Amino acid sequence: MRHRLAPALALLAVFTLPVAAQQKASFIDGTYVLNADGCTKLKALKHGAAESIGTVPWSVTAEGISYWEGGCGWSKVKTLGARRWALTAACGEDIDMSVESYEYTRTSPSTFSVKLTTKGASPKERKPVSYQRCDVK
């Protein structure tokens, strides 16, 4: 019995540790999406639209990243300069867990450039993408 319990407790620790260590990225002042279509989808969800893979866009808040298949919570937030931050995220999709790292750069009062900096990411994955604020009401 003890031999079966140890692996289960180890898995429990791995999957609950990121939740316990979650931090808030207070420089992210609202909800950010990749484009206007993503904002339209978020507004529709707020007003009762059904959730599906086609209706739930990637979005970023001070709490983390959300998307249809899962999400990420910030486990480390570090200021790199006046308009740059390094973030580490604990991500979960179904039962798969991963740790990802990002660099956020404020490019305007309502946009961020976001670059994946996770070790082993391909050059294509490391290409910065722009997120724009979406006032979900």
The geometry reads as globular
Compute the gyration radius: what is it?
Answer: 17 Å
Instruction: Please write the string of helix (H) and strand (E) elements.
Output: HEHEEEEEEE
Number of helices: 2
- How much helical structure, as a percent, in the residues? 10-25%
Give a short account of the largest sheet.
Answer: 8 strands, antiparallel, barrel
Which structural class fits the helix and strand makeup? alpha+beta
Please give the number of β-strands: 8
Strand composition percent? 35-45%
Indicate the mean pLDDT: 86
Distance between the termini: 52 Å
Describe the 3D structure:
With 137 residues, the protein is an alpha+beta fold. 22% of the residues lie in helices and 42% in strands. It has 2 helices and 8 strands. The chain has helices spanning 2-20, 36-46; strands at 31-33, 59-61, 64-67, 70-81, 84-93, 96-108, 111-116, 129-134. Strands 1-2-3-4-5-6-7-8 form an 8-stranded antiparallel β-barrel. It is globular. The chain starts with a helix and ends with a strand.
Overview features:
137 residues; alpha+beta; eight-stranded antiparallel barrel; 2 helices; 22% helix; disordered N terminus
What would you say about this model in short?
The protein is α+β, with helices and mostly antiparallel strands. The chain has helices spanning 2-20, 36-46; strands at 31-33, 59-61, 64-67, 70-81, 84-93, 96-108, 111-116, 129-134. The termini are far apart.
Task: List the SSEs and their pairings.
Blueprint: H1 2-20, E1 31-33, H2 36-46, E2 59-61, E3 64-67, E4 70-81, E5 84-93, E6 96-108, E7 111-116, E8 129-134
Antiparallel strand pairs: 1-2, 1-8, 2-3, 3-4, 4-5, 5-6, 6-7, 7-8
